[in-house]
# Entry
Amino acid sequence: MSNRPPAATPAHAPAPAPVATPVAAHGPAPAPVASEHTELKARNVSFGWDDTPLHWLPGDPFATHTINVLHLLLPAGERWFVHVYKQVLPHIRDEQLRADVIGFIGQEAMHAAAHDDVLPHLRRLGLDPTPYTAQVDWLFEKLLGDRTLPPGRARHWWLMERVAMIAAIEHYTAFLGNWVLNAEELDRRGADPTMLDLLRWHGAEEVEHRSVAFDLFMHVDGGYRRRVRTWATAFAALVFLWQRGARFFMENDPQLRDAKASFGQFFRAGQQGTLPSTGAMLKSIPTYLSRTYHPSQEGSTAQAAAYLASSPGANGGVRP
# Structure
């Protein structure tokens, strides 16, 4: 049975009056779309991997492995999100935002655990990701971890840098979440239903909480130059890590010989609908950097909620 989500509601439809948003330190925050706000909760999910093949998108190891990079990046990255957000909680002065951040923390912790559970399955199929995940762990735990800084301005600066960086990363996780909810080509190509459910459950929650990281950044800092600077850092790091992860998978796949990953393959897969299109990714850059942008303007909370209500993994392994 297809796991394709219900049709999306228009992401740019006129909305009711915006909800109140905390005023950032550098001016008023862009107004969110009121109807897109929802109460966040962590869902207990369960996925069984026994029947999932290594190339879960039949006949397309490149698209399979490009998406598989999520399983390498997300566990360490989302544990890092949680670690940073626990440090910033005392700086939050708005009770609604505090509740949103706590819900976000719970969802991100569950995402990390769910993707972590895929890694032993990959090892059983002959593809050990440990050499790559060790590098990712070093990046988040050491390079982006807590530094030995004196209390005061330097320590606060580093905390705000990481909060801003998470907001930029969450722009792209929401972009990917919205894409996978609507990636009908994956259904047409016969993608493994369990893997597709994991990706769409995660994608739906990314859409559901897409505004939290941005709202938090605007609440505790909101500086536009910091927003641009940390976007550039996050974007460059994601591109580097993703292409490196795709190359690692292709070169170490026990079912392939002399396989390579290239930008040309990525571009063609985007045209075919098995990966996000290059054009859509490039258009997302000025969207995030617009001074009037708010994440609630992109994607559909109603569509995300509809998928979450029907996700087998989020509902005890069965479709309600």
Q: What stands out?
A: Confidence is low (pLDDT under 50) at residues 1-25. The chain is about 60% helix and 0% strand.
